[in-house]
Each structure stands twice: as C-alpha cells, then as structure tokens.
Amino acid sequence: MPNVFAPPHKGAEPRHEQVVFCQDEASGLRAIIAIYSTALGPALGGTRFYPYRTEDEALADVLNLSRGMAYKNALAGLDHGGGKAVIIGDPAVDKSEALLRAYGRFVQSLGGRYYTACDVGTYSEDMDVVARESRFVTGRTVANGGAGDSSVLTAFGVFQGMRAAAETVWGSPTLRGKRVGVEGVGKVGHRLVEHLREDGAEVVICDVNEQAVERVRARHPEVEVVDDRDALIRTDLDVYAPCALGGSLDDDTVPVLTAKIVCGAANNQLAHAGIEKRLADRDVLYAPDYVVNSGGVIQVADEIRGFDFDRAKARASGIYETTKRIFALAADEGVPPAVAADRLAERRMSEIGRLRGILL
Ligand SMILES: NC(=O)c1ccc[n+]([C@@H]2O[C@H](COP(=O)([O-])OP(=O)(O)OC[C@H]3O[C@@H](n4cnc5c(N)ncnc54)[C@H](O)[C@@H]3O)[C@@H](O)[C@H]2O)c1
Q1: Is 122 in the pocket of ligand 1 (CB under 6 A)?
Q2: pLDDT tens digits along 176-214
Q3: 101-114, pLDDT tens digit by residue?
Q4: Any idea where the domains of the chain sit in the sequence?
C-alpha cells in the first residue's frame, strides 16, 4: 500500500496535503482525489477514469499524478497547485450520469481546494455532467462555455519547447531543414506535424492506428511513415517527439537514439529515474515533458476565468522562454534539464507559496 504520509521521491518539501476517498455504492462510484499542494492556489488536475486492478494501484497513480501536476502548474506560471483524481472502473462500461454527478458532489464538497478537468477516460461532455453538481470544473464543452479540445494549445506549446531546444543546440529557434520524428499522430501529434511542416521541417511519423496515419498523409503526402517506435528512433533524426504513451525513453531506446533533441507531448516519457542522466551522457537534449506539454493545462486554467483563446495562447508562448531558462539552469548547475526543471518548479512553489504568510 503506498504510504500517503511518506516523503515524495522527487525530494520536494511539501507532502500530499489531502487525499480523499469517495464512494457512492448505488452508482458504483469509487474515486480518489489527491491534492499534492495548494501553495500556489487551488489544486488543478484532471480526472482519470481507468480500470485499475487494485485500490493500491489507483492510489499510487493518483499520488504520482497529483505531484506531477503541482510541478507542471508551477512551471506553467499558473496560480494553481497540483491535484488529480482517479475513478476506478472501465469508462466504457461503468460511466453513467449518476456516477459522474456523485463524483461532482465530492469535488464540490472540497469547496474549491480542487478543480477538476478531463484526463484519460474522461471528456469535455463528462465535465459538463460533473459541473451540474460542482462549480469547480473546467475543460468543458464550447457549448457550455468551455474551451473545448486542449490539444490545440498542447501542440503549440510542444512546438515552442522544440524551438527553444533547437536554438540551444543549433543556435536558431527553428526546425527548418531538420528531420523530426513524431511518435503518435493523435490529437496532439497531428497538430504538431502541422506546426513542423509550416516551419519547414521534414517529418517522419509512426502510429499504431492506421487511420491516424492516413489523416496526416492525406494533408501531407510528403510525410514519411515508418512501422513503429523502434524504426522511428533508429532512423536518421534530428528531433524525436514522443506523442503517444509514456515510458518511451528507457534502457533500450536511449542507447540507439539518433536524435540530438527529445521534445514531445507524452506524459512521463522517462521510464525510470536515471534515464535523464543517460540522455545527458549521450549529449541528447531532453526538453522535460511536463514543461513543454503544459499548453493543455494553461487552456483549462484560463477557462476558469472565462476563456480567452488569445490570452491562453500568449501564456502558452511562454513555454519557449521557460524551456530556455531550464536549459540555461541545467548548464549552470551541471545537471540534466529534468532536474533543473524540478528545481525551478520547487523554487516557485516555495517563493510564491511563502507569500501567503503575509497576513491580509
Ligand atoms: N491532449 C492534451 O491536451 C495533452 C496534454 C498534455 C499531455 N498529453 C499527452 O500527450 C500524449 C498524446 O495525447 P493525445 O491527446 O494526442 O492522445 P491521442 O490518444 O489522441 O493520441 C495518441 C496517439 O498515439 C498512438 N499510439 C498509441 N500507442 C502507440 C505506439 N506504441 N506507437 C505509436 N503510436 C501509438 C495512438 O494510436 C494515437 O493516435 C499522451 O501521452 C497524453 O497524455 C496530452
């Protein structure tokens, strides 16, 4: 059983502030809401609806994800702490109006300490249902005043991070003439391909879903397609952009990477601690995933104030500067960028969070 009171392995000072188990037997709701930190403001993070095999597995995931959101929100410059929720069950079978509304009542019961949004297994339409019971819901449909699909700004943000990496490695913030491999051309990946082609990059893609590949090829017949990740990382690349699932950088892939830069949307790209060092040892510049993929959370955070696309896009443009700051700090302190990013996030949580000590 994961120990809620144990120090987090990232080494940051604050531990999870609050972990709430929610149950409604009649609707079948079994959910856990974890608030890692409210140092910067109300915790913000999505609801994952997933068929966890055990309660322990669900708890471990929500503790991990909520801590990750605190770091992501801190470096996105948001006035939000980190939180996340998991609902245990198969969304295709177990999702119902009653279950989502029961969940909404638990979110509401936290009085705004936690704002929820979409994640794996939940969609904007589900957030509309949750919002019938709670004010603390974002990521809603456009029809209900929400901002809609967050992958638009996620892809834009990843592209900004990639420009920053290109400037650091090749001296100019453009991918023009570079060969970029995009693994996974789903909601984010196919939009990233648009930015890359517009910027003049050569693009190679792979996806397990034939339709996703065809959608890209229909618009860009010049894009090269390879069979799978293994083929992608071994082909001659300047940049590798993991935009499918997490864990693509591991003990097998890192030694054979041809790319000089890794920058993509997927969450948790590093399969385990220590991979960031192996990348640095091979002189591969890794743009930390949670920094460059924060365009989506920037969008849902903006929606809380009443969505303004231009304002949210302007903030997502800041991912370029933040990524450059991380690379600079990494060089100054002689650590991999993933470590530098964590340090910057912890610094902001501590410096800005401390201000709450000034009585108003
Ligand atoms: N959508 C967002 O706003 C957002 C925000 C932050 C992070 N992310 C992360 O970015 C990644 C992509 O998100 P998305 O919204 O585009 O998801 P998606 O499901 O729309 O796209 C993922 C794509 O990857 C493909 N894929 C799955 N396994 C693969 C494999 N082994 N090899 C190649 N392709 C594979 C899928 O077929 C799909 O086309 C995810 O890891 C997600 O957690 C997304």
Answers
A1: no
A2: 999 999 999 999 999 999 999 999 999 999 999 999 999
A3: 999 999 999 999 99
A4: 18-69+81-144, 151-294+322-345
Which segments within the chain are labelled E, that is strand? 18-24, 29-37, 43-44, 47-50, 81-88, 114-115, 179-183, 202-206, 224-225, 239-242, 261-262, 285-286
User: Does ligand 1 have an atom closer than 6 angstroms to the CB of 206?
Assistant: yes
pLDDT at 32: 98
Same fold, 18-69+81-144 and 151-294+322-345: yes
The CATH number of 151-294+322-345 is which of 3.30.70.1450, 1.20.120.790, 3.40.50.720, 3.40.50.300?
A: 3.40.50.720
pLDDT of residue 155: 98
* Fold of the domain spanning 18-69+81-144: Rossmann fold (3.40.50)
Catalytic, 84? Answer yes
Q: Say which residues have a Cβ less than 8 Å from residue 355's Cβ, sequence separation at least 6.
A: none
Residue 193 annotated as lining a ligand binding site: no
Q: Is the pTM of this model over 0.85?
A: yes
Catalytic residue among 72, 84, 178, 324: 84
| Partners of 285 in beta bridges | 261
Q: What is the DSSP letter of 118?
A: B
- AA letter at 172: S
Enumerate long-range contacts of 276-282, CB under 8 Å, 24 or more apart. 276/336, 276/337, 276/338, 276/339, 277/336, 278/251, 278/254, 279/249, 279/254, 279/336, 280/336, 280/337, 282/254, 282/255, 282/257
Is 284 annotated in some ligand binding site?
Answer: no
